[in-house]
Amino acid sequence: MTWNRREFLQAAAFGLSTGLLDHAPAAQNAGSTIRAVAFDGFVIFDPRPVFALAERLFPGKGAEISSAWRMRQFEYQWLCALSRRYVDFEQATEGALVYAANLLKLDLTADNRAQLMRAYLELKAWPDVLPALRKMHDLGIRLAVLSNATPRILEAGIDNSGLQRLFDYVISTHNIQTYKPDPRAYQMGIDAFKLPRNQIAFAAFGGWDAAGAKWFGYPTFWVNRMSLPVEELDARPDAIVATAGELIALIRP
C-alpha cells in the first residue's frame, strides 16, 4: 500500500502512523437475517477534506493539528455522554479545534476557524457509497444513518451526495442529547426500524464504535477504511471490510 503526501496527512488525522497495518481477516456472516443496516456517518461521508483543509491553512502542521483535533473531538463527546452534560457535535468539534490549536501554539484566526467548521457542512460520500446503497436498497434492505453528528451536518452530507431517497431514517444522537457508545444511542436504531437488534446490522467507521455496537448486541461490521488494528477489547466485530460495497455479501438476504 503506497501513500502520497496528502494521503498520509489525511490518514494521520485519524491517528495513523507510517506503519499502517493490513486489514484484519474478515469474519463470516453474523448468521442472522439482516433486514436493515444502520451506518455511522463517516462510513458514508468522507471526512478527509476537512483535514486536507487544515494542511492548507497550516502548512506543515496539518497532520498534527488534525490528529489532536480529532482525538479531542471524540474525548469531548465521550466526556459529555459519561457526565450527561451535553453539548452538540458542532460545539464539541469547535471546542476541540480551539484546544488543538492552543496545544500546538498555532494562530487559529476567526476566518480559519469558520472555514474548518464549515467544511463539515460540505462533506460528500465516499466514492463506493452510492452504488453500494443502491444495491442494498434494490435488495430490500432498509437503511439508516445513526451518527453523533448533528442533523444539520447529516442532512447537508446527504444533499451534497445525492442520497436523499436511499435512507429510511437519518438518526442523530443529538435528538436524545448523548453520544455513541452510550447504549441509548444504539437503541435509536431499534426504535426507528422496529426490528429485533439481531436483524439490524451496524456498520461502524471507528473501532471504538464497532466495539460499542457489538456490546449493544448488533451484528457489527467494521468498515475499516484506515486499516487500523482491532480494539483490544472483548468486542470483535462480526466482519471487517474496507469499503461499503463489501457489506453487500454479508447482508444479502
Describe the structure.
The chain has helices spanning 5-12, 41-44, 48-57, 62-83, 89-103, 110-118, 129-138, 151-161, 183-193, 207-216, 248-251, and strands at 36-39, 142-147, 169-172, 200-204, 220-223, 239-241. The chain is globular, with a radius of gyration of 18 Å. The chain is an alpha/beta fold. Residues 1-31 have low confidence and may be disordered. Helix 8 links the parallel strand 2 and strand 3. Helix 3 (48-57) crosses helix 4. It contains eleven helices and six strands. A six-stranded parallel beta sheet has the order 3-2-1-4-5-6, sandwiched between helices. 45% of the residues lie in helices and 10% in strands. The two termini are 33 Å apart. It folds into two domains: 19-46 and 123-251, HAD superfamily/HAD-like (Rossmann fold), CATH 3.40.50.1000; 48-121, Orthogonal Bundle (DNA polymerase, domain 1), CATH 1.10.150.240.
Write the layout of secondary structure elements.
Elements: H1 5-12, E1 36-39, H2 41-44, H3 48-57, H4 62-83, H5 89-103, H6 110-118, H7 129-138, E2 142-147, H8 151-161, E3 169-172, H9 183-193, E4 200-204, H10 207-216, E5 220-223, E6 239-241, H11 248-251
Parallel strand pairs: 1-2, 1-4, 2-3, 4-5, 5-6
Helix pairs in contact: 1-3, 1-4, 3-4, 3-6, 4-5
